[in-house]
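Example 3.2
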Amino acid sequence: MKQAHIIFLITFFILGSCKNNESSKLELEENFPELDTTKLYQIITINYRKNNILEEYEVYLTKKKDSIWNQWKIYKNGVIDSSKSKFYTLKIEGKKSDSVLKGTISFHSPFDSIPASKIKSRTVTFAYLQKINDSLIFKKIYTDKNVIHFDYYDFENMSFIGYISDLRFIEIDSVPGSLLLDRNSFAVDSEPSTNNTYVELLK
């Protein structure tokens, strides 16, 4: 089960730190928010600190206590290592009284370092829950960019539920005529407890 991955990682890092330099200290920080048991998923963050390295992980926990990894940031000397990090940034601007809010979402993965000349095709799908004419729908935006601007109609106290799918076909230099499919995805939530069914697509 995926929950065991957390236990394995913790054990691995602890054993590694003991075998290497006793003066180097591993610090494990876990953030378990207040649970809303009516929701399908709880979002927690796990941080590992060792010497000048900080690793931040966002994990979805199911009611069965399975863990689903969503995004992570690796820092070295306080600077993010983009070659090893996968994350998104969501920004919603406006007031609760505004009829339309302005949203921006940007995301990054290690595959962003691949030159555009090597990408045969790319399709980014951004879906988010939206209230239109008293009905809740998932609105979709299609693009090939890492930054997306959108209009947002607030429906539940400024909360947000969404999903990003990024598919790229990449040319392989060593095998002419062949393509590598890179599949990258994120569940997007603004609250620590969620019913975001797109989380299942992360498995």
